[in-house]
Amino acid sequence: MIPGEPIFSKSTRVLHINQNNTLEVCRFAGEVIRRGELVAFPTETVYGLGADALNQQAVRNIFSAKERPADNPLIVHVSNTDEVKRVAKNTPKIAQVLMDAFWPGPLTLVLPRKNIVPDVTTGGLDTVAVRMPDHLAALELIREAGVPVAAPSANTSGKPSPTTAQHVMDDLGGRIDMIIDGGRVVIGVESTVIDVTGNIPVLLRPGGVGIEELQEIIGRIRVSTPEDVSIPRSPGVKYTHYSPEATVVLVTGDGVAGAIRKLAEEYEGKVGLLLCRETAETVGDMGEKIILGSRNDVESIARNLFYSLRLLDKQHVELIIADGSFSVEGVGLAAMNRLKKASSKLIHTG
């Protein structure tokens, strides 16, 4: 236990980790998880809001803190592949292949659920979503908790996912017991989710692992359609997600620069621009401008996306015009998916 730090408090505790204290902090936080409380923690993708996945009341507290719809399933986090057996009835061969290739990492597998996992964790489904994060603090926390950890993104439901501890505090301060501050995350968008319970794997949500990487390992993958969303088997597919306070307009196609410039000039309120580097060079000096990265540097674009949406909200812009001219290969597909979900309008230019 960390000297002088109580396990419970009415205020949200923020504990900063470094090379010397990570194990101590995670041991303390693991005790908090075991007691049925909520701990936000960093992963390689975004910050997660963790609770004992097998404790119904603790998981209900996640939904309450986030104001999350009850039928939106949670991802269960484990610290090693053997722990999958604790929550899943079986592990299909293709799931084992994917675990060997991508775990620890930003890939979530939807598997047949064991009854030990309560309905509140799975949204009442007969499946459970499982992943092993690629982050030292996350893995240490799960190990120290001694239980599988249910952890959606640590934000108010519908808002951009948090990529720093401050983002978590902005949304959930006073609602949760603890935040482990591990700095800004590396990937910046959530994990890829793939359902491996059927004959053909189904991509439910694009994320940190590109579909091209998956296809290299397992071949054919079906991409989910809007018809699959009526009963969500994955978080992030049914409800409004990733939206800042400002209205977002996404511009795609070959003529993005001209369209963005025209929209910004015509709008009478305060405008924020999320731009690829190439577009920024031709748009000129207008609005609150943030460069996400080069069009082909999709890792930078993904890492900066949620961070920049929140930054523009802090600057009180009323309209965010987003540049969608970047590549949708790899994690670029996830970045485009998140922008489309955040946007109230899509403009495609010729």
How would you characterize this protein structure?
The protein has 350 residues and is of the alpha/beta class. The protein is built from twelve helices and 16 strands. It folds into two domains: 13-229, DHBP synthase, CATH 3.90.870.10; 247-349, 3-Layer(aba) Sandwich (Rossmann fold), CATH 3.40.50.11030. The chain has helices spanning 22-34, 56-66, 84-87, 93-102, 119-122, 136-145, 165-172, 211-218, 256-266, 277-283, 298-314, 332-342, and strands at 13-16, 39-41, 48-52, 75-77, 107-112, 127-131, 149-150, 178-181, 192-195, 202-205, 222-223, 247-253, 271-276, 288-293, 319-323, 345-349. Strand 13, helix 10 and strand 14 (288-293) form a beta-alpha-beta unit. The chain is globular, with a radius of gyration of 20 Å. The model is unreliable at 1-9 (pLDDT under 50).
